[in-house]
Amino acid sequence: MKPINFLKKILSKKASQFLPASAYILISGTVGKTLALTAANLVLSSKYKTLAIQTSGNSFLNIWPNTEKVLIEISPLDRLEIEEKLNILKPQIGVVTMATFGSLEDFQKTESFSNLTYFVQSFPEDANVILNWDDLPSRKLAELTPAKVFFVGSDSVNCHLFASQIKTRNGRTLLELNYGVERVEIEVETLGLGGVNGVMLACAIGLLSEMSLFTIKKTLEGFKPLEHRMKLVEGLEGLTILDDTYDATLIGIDDSLDIIGLLPARHRFFILGGLEHSDLLEQDLKRLAQKICNDKVVDYIFTGGSISPFIEELERLGFAGKVEVGLSRSQIVGRVLTLVRIGDLVLIKGPRSTKMDEIVSRITKQTK
To answer: Count of CB atoms within 10 A of residue 86's CB?
Structure first.
């Protein structure tokens, strides 16, 4: 490590100790961390002087004496960072956005499960850990922590905060948030279950930070979709684009496919640049193909690579739409612009390494 970076790291540790443990909120999980962090920052900032830290490093140097809350996003793969932040800060609120990674059996074999287990086990009895009841691996983590567990989800019996009456209308999500005897209706621009989960986690953080449900609702209604995360964009030739090119986890693909089934369209295109962790999830790739065939909402599939188990299963099931495999980004753009008509919907997904966001840029209607 360079001397200047080492000095910044030491100063950052010192700065982090200026605030009480109750100021710190740690957010980890396999998906949805940045969305939860951003939404929670919006909520807390309406009452507290808040700092949101997306990456590890020297961000603690931004702490000022009047800082009241610090939100910190941590990768479940970074064990050293998890240990350091827990040992130094001793936070009173921890969040696991989701812990899903294929099947529960597969997930328990991963490094992420080991690190998230350590994460929840490190919170003391007087701390709070927020978990998603609808995510089965998160329920497993609830059994392993000595802290007080605050569940969010859709189960009215087992969740402290639960969502109900979830609907999609005009590219927005409407839902009810229920907390004890309180209930509020909320309308947000985020789409999909991932967006609902982020809203609920931010709400839970606000409630545990002594904010009212009504205040949280009013703040969250101003929340905007994050760039390249389930964002509706106006495209060329009268098409609508669902830009979800931030990643290509299987749970994210499931969510985005569900959303395009709810949105009105003449034809629906599914563009997939590739998959994350595809070597681990052959059975899930086959399940994805089965979902597409059963739901019958996709008319065209273009892929940037040959995802064999997925394509083979589509062929075996007799997918009724058109499939084109191994296309370059330029070829995908050409095929889309040749085939689309007014009223068509194009879902674009892929790991950041595949640069599928470039396709979004090339078929998006430019505003003057």
So the answer is: 19
Do residues 301 and 253 lie in contact, with contact meaning Cβ atoms separated by under 8 Å? no
Burial profile 269-301: b = 16 or more Cβ within 10 angstroms, e = fewer: bbbbbbbbebebbeebbbbbbeebbeeebbbbb
Q: Which of 328, 334, 223, 196 is nearest to 273 (CA)?
A: 328
According to DSSP, the β-strands at 268-272 and 345-349 are parallel
Specify the 3-state DSSP secondary structure of 271.
strand
Residues of the chain under the 50 pLDDT cut? 4, 7-8, 11, 102-108, 278-280
Orientation of helix 282-295 relative to helix 308-317, angle to 10°: 40
User: Please, are residues 229 and 246 in contact by the beta-carbon 8 Å criterion?
Assistant: yes
Of the candidates 29, 262, 58, which has an alpha carbon nearest to the alpha carbon of residue 131? 29
Amino acid at site 199: V
Other CB atoms within 10 Å distance of the CB of residue 340: 22
> Is the overall model pTM greater than 0.70, yes or no?
yes
Q: What CA–CA distance (Å, rounded) separates 168 from 240?
A: 16
Rounded CA Rg of the chain: 21
Dist CA 226 CA 9 (whole Å): 29
Domains of the chain: 3-220 (3.40.1190.10), 231-363 (3.90.190.20)
Q: What is the pLDDT of residues 160-193, one digit of tens each?
A: 999 999 999 888 999 999 999 999 999 999 999 8
Find all residues with CB under 8 Å of 168, minimum gap 6, and list them.
Answer: 174, 191, 259, 262, 263
- Asked whether 82 and 115 are in contact (CB, 8 A), the reply is yes
